[in-house]
Design goal:
The chain is mainly α. It contains 10 helices and 2 strands; from the N terminus they run ααααββαααααα. It has a two-stranded antiparallel sheet. The radius of gyration is 20 Å and the shape is globular. 26% of the residues are buried.
């Protein structure tokens, strides 16, 4: 599905510049892929981070908390440097969209980062692998995360990338507006935001309470 979407865009540009007469990738009737709906529970996040710390893999625990509390993609969080953090908030450009975001850190995130040794440069990544003393690539942090989940006896289906969706859903459950959510997640479109915020029983209850409470 993704490949067809890319080809459709390429042929659209070609037709616009009179390089082709038609777009064979239009109106193919393909079914869209199901949106991923997996959410972590707060207790699962807490267990994951505690287990990571116990295994001397606290860097992955820090990565998980960054993704969870800031509602961001793991790729952006593992590339964060100390220059992106002023001790209170995080300012950076999202790699996928180029969108600039400036997000205050949660008290627990600020406290966790304050415990990281201070002998560092501004260009150093915040999340540093204990084994290599360098930033993570995607394969390595995924491997370490799988080891931590196994040790913590957490479901294998959980992914670090699901923490962005989980955090956004919790923000919605807390009563945040769409504009507040988009300011954190970096989404320009309300339609795209709906992919990340999953319907929950708590959201249903909040909606009814707002109407009749």
């Amino acid at each position: 599905v993704h490949t067809i979407k890319v080809l459709r865009k390429i042929w659209f540009v070609g037709r616009r510049h009179s390089k082709v007469q038609s777009n064979p990738f239009e109106k193919m009737g393909l079914k869209g892929l199901k949106s991923r709906t997996v959410l972590w529970s707060p207790e699962q996040v807490k267990t994951f981070i505690a287990t990571a710390d116990k295994m001397n893999k606290g860097s992955v625990g820090t990565l998980a908390l960054l993704c969870y509390d800031l509602c961001q993609r793991p790729g952006d969080m593992r590339q964060l440097t100390w220059a992106n953090y002023d001790g209170y908030s995080f300012e950076f450009l999202q790699e996928k969209t180029g969108q600039r975001v400036n997000i205050p850190g949660s008290p627990r995130l600020i406290e966790r980062l304050s415990n990281i040794p201070t002998n560092r440069n501004e260009e150093d990544p915040i999340v540093v692998c204990e084994a290599t003393h360098k930033g993570f690539d995607r394969r390595l942090y995924s491997k370490w995360a799988a080891t931590i989940k196994e040790e913590a006896k957490l479901p294998k289906e959980l992914k670090i990338s699901d923490l962005r969706r989980t955090g956004a859903t919790e923000m919605a459950e807390s009563g945040c507006t769409e504009d507040e959510l988009r300011s954190v997640t970096g989404h320009q479109s309300r339609d795209v935001l709906s992919i990340y915020v999953r319907p929950t029983d708590k959201l249903a209850a909040t909606g009814i309470n707002k109407r009749f409470g």
